[in-house]
Amino acid sequence: MGMLRWGAHLLLLLLLLAAATWTCAGAGAGVTSEYRRKLEATVDMPLDADVFRVPPGYNAPQQVHITLGDQTGTAMTVSWVTANELGSNTVRYGSSPEKLDRAAEGSHTRYDYFNYTSGFIHHCTLTGLTHATKYYYAMGFDHTVRTFSFTTPPKPAPDAPFKFGLIGDLGQTFDSNSTLAHYEANGGDAVLFVGDLSYADNYPLHDNNRWDTWARFVERSVAYQPWIWTAGNHELDYAPELGETVPFKPFTHRYPTPYRAAGSTEPFWYSVKIASAHVIVLASYSAYGKYTPQWTWLQEELATRVDRKLTPWLIVLMHSPWYNSNNYHYMEGETMRVQFERWLVDAKVDVVLAGHVHSYERSRRFANIEYNIVNGKATPAANVDAPVYITIGDGGNIEGIANNFTVPQPAYSAFREASFGHATLEIKNRTHAHYAWHRNHDGAKAVADAVWLTNRYWMPTNDDV
Ligand SMILES: [Fe+2]
What we know:
- By secondary structure, this protein is α+β, with helices and mostly antiparallel strands.
- It is built from 6 helices and 26 strands.
- The chain has helices at 2-26, 174-186, 209-222, 249-254, 293-305, 334-346, and strands at 31-32, 62-68, 76-82, 90-94, 102-105, 107-109, 112-113, 116-117, 120-126, 134-139, 146-151, 162-167, 190-193, 227-229, 270-274, 277-281, 313-317, 351-354, 360-363, 366-367, 381-382, 388-392, 413-417, 421-427, 432-439, 449-454.
- Strands 1-23-19-22-18-17-16-15 form an 8-stranded mixed β-sheet, with no helix packed on it.
- The longest helix has 25 residues, at 2-26.
- The chain starts with a helix and ends in an 11-residue tail after the last strand.
- The structure holds fe (ii) ion (FE2).
- Fe (ii) ion binds next to loops.
């Protein structure tokens, strides 16, 4: 009898335990996608691939790319490379290809990197532009002229719609090409690029010719719409063994950012205001400790320069993610999270975008800001003021996919999948934005993860369930 009663108690206990476990798992458990891409090597496209082709014509401008030349897009900085000789620094621009009635004079730079010498790298800022207007522009006037176009972003306004493309860790493999093609098919207005561009540093001697091939590869998009640059670890090109001890040398020579317009003192952290979005770019590989220039700048930015009435959407870009449940690059973003997370939660940041980890992950609105050295409270907790963290380092570079997630999936993680792809963030008005992640192995329009985001300032509802 006694044994039987014991057995009944044990059974009851087991049932209760099972129910509790099931309840925990069922209460908003995140999804670790079972989707597995076809196993194949992630290899760079060969140097004679059509996407790397040098444009025809003597000294033809190549590697054309644009980014904002001021904070809102009434200026646009055009960059390009000439390989044979310096050529002209002039950009002509206007409202039609036949009427390029304005001209801007740029400057040029070159750099050496170990045994490599760059071409002539031109930068020219077109100023006095009107918002939401299409412009044609041309350069290469001494020799081979090439003509492109772009549309300036809408003037900052609380309900101005805008569609961002979100791409990170792109590289120049066949998968990179697929990512870019999918993004082009989905048609964003500008790209928020979260760092790691060419992966030239994976080649012997950091072969900087791969910086050139990468720029020719992405020209088909970035010559026609601004990409907002974040510096990743593959932009460091710090190689004392080669005598190259100036960090970011190729990146800073090639990819200007409008940091001065944003009150910053370095090109690696700055902000832009595009339509209804205020976008802050942070630098994972520059100092961010208390009293450093980046720390001081961000404090002032959040306190005095963010205006949610004018630009309701507050988006932060960085390379190394703060919330990453992949064993690759695990906790590398932790020191910056400790430094800045409370500021972002207090500021009600809508979305934080990062790269670095070569897979995809989206978080719920969680924060881990209660901890101090004596209270031990170090568990991320649901927080309606917290941003959604998105890791989008799945552009498709040569290092391959990061397919080693931590188990179990942490409570803050809503969806994660080890696939290549890109995302779009389509802001509709001051309250709603539609976020969608596109996996490369589906059709361009197919969405593998999507969520409607509500604005943290104007409509802070529970949008993550
Ligand atoms: Fe990285």
